[in-house]
Amino acid sequence: MPKIKKVEKVGKLTKIKKITVADLSFPDYDLSRDGITQSLLSNVQVCRQKFLFAINRWVKSGTERKYLFGTVIHAFLEKAYTRHIFKDVNVENAFIDEWVTNYFQEHVTGRISGLEKRGEQEIEARVYAVLTEYMKFYRDDFTEMKFVEVEKSFEIDFHGYTLKGKTDGVFQDKQNKLWVLEHKTKGRIDEDTLLLLLCFDTQSLFYVLVKQRQAKQSVAGVIYNVIRNPSQRWSTSETLKKYQDRIIKEIQLKPEHFFKRYEIPFTPQDVIKFEGHLDTVLSELQSLIQGRTPVYKNDKACDGKFVCEYLEACAKGKLTGLEQTESLFMELK
Fold first, then answer.
1. What is the DSSP code string of 120-186?
2. Confidence at 189, pLDDT banded by 50, 70, 90
């Protein structure tokens, strides 16, 4: 907490102005020097005002708590697939249990704002249940798939702009073609809509483009690996162990409901077309950053499948309910 010094001098005091939405401007940010990730890029495609919030590192309070399940799942899969590369994989439940317990003790307990003990235990139980069944369901990943990299960060030049990010995994199929493996955790899945969107998914094409340039060979496409976050909640009438076992049993009854994979093949023409699209978006973004085009709100993006996290701030002009992250690219930390 900052030290607040009382001003004793009698006279007119200068009020400290709170930062408002109207005060936001583009910080010392350069597309070539600092680069851009696909997640930051998605903000400007949705709404220029949303991008302005993001570039100033403002996020909705509780975001870390909201995405905790996915964060832990990603962290474990990074560990498991990395061990696979080095021919050292232990998929026993005891190993998963120990890893999950240690992760929560080191990274979660007492460190995430607003997360109470019961809520932490509930998420930990769900994570353990999902991971134990995932490792059984996809056991072939660790016996047959040939991974060449896992959770590898990248930073490349693209027409004078810097693209940066991190891919969950890249593997070779039996024909030695390269594929990107992308993990996604979701609460609900509208499969019909998802299948259509994946045909031109920006994130998938972004990663394919980058990996092609790095590997200097074509990339066949992306395996979109969806892991469902169980919707069941911990009842006050059951023990934590019973809650965990209940989730495990439900996953065992219908594993295809919780674990889905989609193969998204991209042709060289798809990638060339995306290059043109990306170059256009980045050129427009450069104009926005340099003040040659205005920032405006896209009210059509406020209330869709999910309510925009900045809706209240835009409506009231205040940053109430938002907090600043340590880094612009938190997903790379």
1. HHHHHHHHHHHHHHHHHHTGGGGTT-EEEEEEEEEEEEETTEEEEEEEEEEEE-TT--EEEEEEEEE
2. confident
The answer to whether the beta carbons of residues 151 and 112 sit under 8 Å apart is no
Q: Measured in whole angstroms, how far is the alpha carbon of residue 101 from the centre of its chain?
A: 22
Based on the number of CB atoms within 10 Å of its own CB, is 102 exposed (0-12), middle (13-18) or buried (19 or more)? exposed
Burial of 118: CB neighbours in 10 Å, binned 0-12, 13-18, 19+: exposed
How many Å apart are CA 161 and CA 279, to the nearest integer? Answer: 9
271 HSE (CA, 13 A, CB side): 20
Do residues 53 and 125 make contact, with C-beta atoms less than 8 angstroms apart? no
Residue 135 lies in a domain: yes
Is 121 inside any structural domain? yes
- CA 77 – CA 74 distance, rounded (Å): 5
In a domain, 267, yes or no: yes
- The one-letter amino acid code at 127 reads V
CA distance 221 to 16: 53
| Count of the separate structural domains present in the chain | 1
Helix, strand, or coil (residue 227): strand
Residue 21 in any domain: the answer is no
Tens-digit pLDDT profile for residues 260-279 = 999 999 999 999 999 999 99
What residue type is 48 in one-letter code?
Answer: R
Task: Dig out the tokens for 303 from the structure.
Answer: 């209330």
pTM for the complete prediction?
A: 0.88
Domain CATH for 256? 3.90.320
